[in-house]
Amino acid sequence: MGAFETLAAYFGFDEHDTDLGTETIAGITTFLAMSYIIVVNPLILSEAIAIDGYDAGEIQQMITVATILASAVAIFVMAFWANRPFGLAPGMGLNAFFAFTVVIGLGVPWQVALAAVFVEGIIFIALTAVGARKYIIELFPEPVKFAVGAGIGVYLLFLGLQEMQIVVDHPDTLVTLGNVATSAVAALSVVGLALMLILHARGTRGSIVIGILATAVAGWVLTIADVVSPGTLVPAQTYEQVANDGILSLIASVQYDFTPLVAGFIEGLGLITDDPLVFALVVFTFFFVDFFDTAGTLIGVSQIGGFLDEDGDLPEIEKPLMADAIGTTVGAIIGTSTVTTFIESSAGVEEGGRTGFTALVVGLLFVLSLLIVPLIGAIPQYASYLALVVVGIIMLQGVTDIDWQDPSWAISAGLTITVMPLTASISNGLAAGIISYPLVKAAMGRAEDVSVGQWALAIAFILYFAVFFAVDAGMFSF
Predict the structure, then answer these.
(1) Confidence at residue 356, expressed as pLDDT on a 0 to 100 scale
(2) What molecular function terms (GO) are annotated for this protein (predicted)?
(3) How many other C-beta atoms lie within 10 A of the C-beta of residue 220?
(4) Would you call 427 exposed, middle or buried from its count of C-beta atoms within 10 A (0-12, 13-18, 19+)?
(5) Residue 374: its pLDDT value, please?
(6) Which of 60, 135, 201, 383 fits a disulfide with 42 by CB distance 3.0 to 4.6 angstroms?
(7) Pair 188, 233: CB distance under 8 Å
(8) Residue 93's pLDDT is what?
(9) 3-state SS of the chain?
(10) Positions of the chain with pLDDT lower than 50, given as ranges
(11) So what's the pLDDT on residue 243?
(12) What pLDDT does residue 478 have?
């Protein structure tokens, strides 16, 4: 049996009606859609991490390496153990909570915050191993499960349109339509999106990859040709370095030694007992948000991939759940925040990714990016976010699975779909649906349709918000 036949048999290409080319393109698509995390995660975490003897740039590069390695570990578990086409990396929102709320806001040392993420990861591994996470996710009400995909779709649309500057801030209405005539980013994004949508509508393989790369290249060409100033369509710092020292200077400038972050994590383990109550609250918050963000992402992305069964459950969900648990644990040790499944995985699934080989391609590209870390930053974020708009539109098809004539379905599903984008949180959307479902059922005189577990889940969310608001209000400090 040749190498191709071995790969096809291991990942089940025939079983999932896919092939090597489709899976490879899907992996590249997912990587391009989520590669921004390699740049953004270090920028966020470096706001909270200070190490004697190292400047901010060196710390950012340490975190970059840790981000890549933690992502790769989690993705390889996803590929070889779960055999699912999902990418993982330190989660947006979770990294901001780590930096700005826990470390800067509460005054928790960054070393202790890493220890909290580590403990969260260990708890996840234990709960996943005994099937507790799978059991809890299967308690989600059916309308919530079927609404998650559409909710994530609207969320992706909102994120993508904001990054494209099509949706912008407004002091009265919060958001409004951006001006394509005065914004170079908006104008180029619209052209890039049009190209991507046309290729997708024509069934062109790799339409998302082509759209991202074509838009990024156009941004660089317009900048080099002095049509726009540096920093408008491409990162200013990257452009200046290339202009002054050549493109090879980017590759030669990486700081690979991240051992100071590991030393900080070890130090953090010894500081846990300084204030165990605050530490427990931080672990609880990390745990709760990550648990439901991951659950929502897995269900939503699986819905567009056709992976869910008739009850809206993902078979063997404990396997992909183990991937983020291991990634979170390893990531904390080497110096980064909670690792979770990325909603950008939906871009690769839309391109036809159906097996762990898609994830394997994503993981290999993360590893290869160690060699060209600064070049990843050469892809403007708005170009990557074009994929979110396309995928967001496609994910709206999930609303057809919802029984809009049943008030318990309509209310819980409607809240799940709308709260996600309006609060920029998958877990908040799930909370709205999970809390409202038993209440509406009871109001309809059908409380017997609600299981004890679903009531318990709703109460758990209420308790979580009580803790979260107390922490956010500064009622606790380290």
Answers:
(1) 96
(2) purine nucleobase transmembrane transporter activity
(3) 17
(4) buried
(5) 67
(6) 60
(7) yes
(8) 78
(9) CCHHHHHHHHHCCCCCCCCHHHHHHHHHHHHHHHCHHHHHHHHHHCCCCCCCCCCHHHHHHHHHHHHHHHHHHHHHHHHHHHCCCCCEEECCCHHHHHHHHHHHHCCCCHHHHHHHHHHHHHHHHHHHHCCHHHHHHHCCCHHHHHHHHHHHHHHHHHHHHHHCCCEEEECCCEEEECCCCCCHHHHHHHHHHHHHHHHHHCCCCCHHHHHHHHHHHHHHHHHHCCCCCCCCCCCHHHHHHHHHHCCHHHHCCCCCCCHHHHHHHHHHHHCHHHCHHHHHHHHHHHHHHHHHHHHHHHHHHHHHHCCCCCCCCCCCCHHHHHHHHHHHHHHHHHCCCCEEECCCHHHHHHCCCCCHHHHHHHHHHHHHCCCCHHHHCCCCHHHHHHHHHHHHHHHHHHHHHCCCCCHHHHHHHHHHHHHHHHHCCHHHHHHHHHHHHHHHHHHCCCHHHCCHHHHHHHHHHHHHHHHHHHHHCCCCCC
(10) none
(11) 75
(12) 60
Task: Mention every residue, 6+ apart, whose C-beta is less than 8 A from residue 119.
Answer: 283
Q: Do 278 and 78 meet the contact criterion of CB atoms below 8 Å apart?
A: no
What is the reported pLDDT for 282? Answer: 86
Tokens of 195: 């190209």
Whole-angstrom Cα distance, residue 423 to residue 93?
11
Residue 27, both tokens = 């992996």
pLDDT at 250: 60
**Rounded Cα distance, 110 and 322, in Å:** 25
pLDDT at position 378 is 76
- Spatial distance between the Cα atoms of 70 and 326, rounded to a whole number of angstroms: 9
